[in-house]
Amino acid sequence: MSLYANLRLKASPSPVPAVKGHWFNIRFTPDLTDGETLNIGVGFVAEDRQIHAKLLADFTCLHCLYGDRLDLDELQFLIDLLRQHWTYTGVPQPPPSPNIAFSVLKYAAGDSIEAILEELYQETVSLQPDSFARRRANNNIRCIDTQAARALVFEAMVRKAPLSAAMLATNPIWSVDGNKRLDMPIRAHHRFGTLISLWYQTTQTRELNTLRAQADLDAARRLFPDDVGGLFILRPPVGQPGYDQKQQQQINQVIEMTTWRLSMQHMRCEVEDDPDILAERVLRWSDMAAVHI
Question: What CA–CA distance (Å, rounded) separates 213 from 79?
Answer without folding.
Answer: 17
